[in-house]
Design brief:
Blueprint lengths: L10 H14 L11 H12 L16 H16 L4 H5 L1 E4 L2 E4 L11 H6 L13 E5 L5 H9 L4 E6 L2 H13 L6 E5 L10 E6 L6 H6 L20 H9 L4 E10 L4 H7 L6 E2 L9 E5 H7 L2
Parallel strand pairs: 3-4, 3-6, 4-5, 6-7
Antiparallel strand pairs: 1-2, 7-9, 8-9
Amino acid sequence: MVLLPDNEYTIESAIRLAADAFERHELHYGHGTDSAIHEASWLILHAMGLSPAIAPDYSLTLSKAQLAASNALLERRISERVPAAYLTGQAWFAGHPFLSDERALVPRSPLAEFITEEFFGVLDAIESPRILDLCTGGGCIAIACALARPDSVVDASDLSPDALALAAENVQLHGLQDRVTLLEGSLFEPVTERYSLIISNPPYVDAADIVAMPSEFSHEPMMGLAAGEDGLDLVRVMLREAAEYLEPNGVLVVEVGNSGEALEAAYPQLDFGWLQFAQGGHGVFLLTRDELLAENQ
């Protein structure tokens, strides 16, 4: 038990004790938080019915019921290694809340910064852009794009019916049924339109990293992570087919994470435009339609 039931704890002291326990048990962070203190804050505030996005009065004392609810979450986080987003049923991406459960990966990507920072200018000259999100999972990237550009129309494809069911719940949560369309199928299979922007955070974990992943990742659907020996199985298809679905001035933006080195080795003639992020993150490239056409000639 992380917090003793007969003791009194302020929010601050409870968070600090929980964070200490997380560090002792060597938990892994990377599913929406980056440290023990942030993870503990998220869980305890959720147990208290408070938003993790709003700083609380840290001197408030937890009630007996809040203490019990906190302990239940903290103990599962330690013993089962369940990511916090799955324990709370909620994740945050690009400043917006999303429903999160084991039907899809926990939302996380440096693409959030790309979206919230006006798509780094790539859509500035385009009115009413059409956007396609490949491998949408729970729909966070597609929905964040629609919220960032209220004049856009967004399509989102995924092979997993379970992930798309979660995405549909998130589309409804944000009231975007008229602007975000979900398509079931592998990559471009269900797609018939052309787009100003094709964006994706696909499976890109290579075989070696799959074996070495911390236990937290075992709760996520493997089809959302694994992408063959070098992590590029789906990206190869995107590079081969994306130009057909892009407008003349359209761009492809894809996260490949640690598989970026393998990608450059596999396509030495391509000048991948690697995006730089002020808030951290790496392994996201941008290619224009013309660059993709030249590669596939």
